[in-house]
Amino acid sequence: MRIGELSRRTGVNAHQLRYYEAQGLLEAGRRANGYREYDEDAVLRVSQIRHLLDAGLSSDDIAYLLPCAVGEAPELPGCPELLDAMRSRLRRLNDQMDRLARSRAALVNYIDAAERTGSEGYPAFADACQVPAPA
């Protein structure tokens, strides 16, 4: 099938499909006229790629995991290398979430403090703190 049909069948636009191919995640043959030609397995492969991307995995992570993927969801057999890669990604996600939670808490504290004191307590700074509202 050509790239347009694969795009229609998977709901993934052709630009993304070409990106997957460039990343080594998806393979396409070439017709004599240079058009990409995908086999029927490409539909399943694109579904697997999308699920793994939705899990927050990078293209490099997916390239490593994809050869072991089974089924649409996909299932990943529990070999130690795969589990180590997924645990590493989970640790990175947890670290990012912790940093975001700390940033959020700090912003909430600053906003609460500013709303409690208002500009009445600091008249000298009232004019200096006139920040335009975001658009």
UniProtKB/TrEMBL annotation:
Family annotation (InterPro entries): DNA-bd_dom_put_sf, MerR-type_HTH_dom, MerR_fam
Annotated HTH merR-type domain residues: 1-68
Coiled-coil ranges per UniProt: none
SMART domains: HTH_MERR
Any GO molecular function: DNA-binding transcription factor activity
DNA-binding is among the record's keywords: yes
Keywords in alphabetical order: DNA-binding
Entries under PANTHER family matching the protein: HTH MERR-TYPE DOMAIN-CONTAINING PROTEIN, REDOX-CYCLING DRUG-SENSING TRANSCRIPTIONAL ACTIVATOR SOXR
Protein name as it appears in the record: DNA-binding transcriptional regulator, MerR family
Organism: Parafrankia irregularis
